[in-house]
Amino acid sequence: MKKLAPSILSADFSRLGEQVELISRAGADYVHVDVMDGHFVPNISFGAAVMKSLNKCHISPYDVHLMIERPDDYLDNFITEKTAYIVVHQEACVHLHRTLQNIKSKGVKCGVAINPATPVSALEWVLAETDLILVMSVNPGFGGQKFIPSALEKIRQLDQLRKQKGYDFVIEIDGGITLDNIRDVADAGCDIFVAGSAVFGAEDIEKRVQEFKERMDGCTGE
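-> structure tokens emitted (222 positions)
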């Protein structure tokens, strides 16, 4: 089943709790939490305190995307009863296998993200260890960027690998996802779709979530 994970990076932070509850009621499957440290990516977003402030709200589970250096030092800060996934970057982890094992030892699912310039082959020896692969379809750091088409080939490669090898990871995409391209991405084999400005920039956010869900339900990809 295809799932939607709106990114709160594009939300109105003066109404964050309200907007996160809104997308959850509308059918968002996850709340995508983009954490940036100003070192691994050229931007600073927010930390665990902002995320945890939403715990009292009636929201969908967290999909935490750590775009930070030394993620192992901060994992505990982002683990709550609402945390479904913690995703780290292949490019930021010196000992990626150890980091994935560390995440799983804390009782949450682990994921690995790869930047546009990183090939799928860089993940060859951890595919059996991870629950999720996140394909970046923009260069990380800022919302509202244009979709990079080569991400589609990466999704196809990952989908083929999991079918051939019997892996059970899900494939997620982040960056430039819109109502216009979501079907192409889904048909390539993607399972979870991160959308930021395309959701929170809409005049009617709840309606936009529903429109995404309708497009996803109409996709031919398994």
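Strands lie at 3-6, 31-36, 62-67, 83-89, 109-114, 132-136, 170-174, 192-195.
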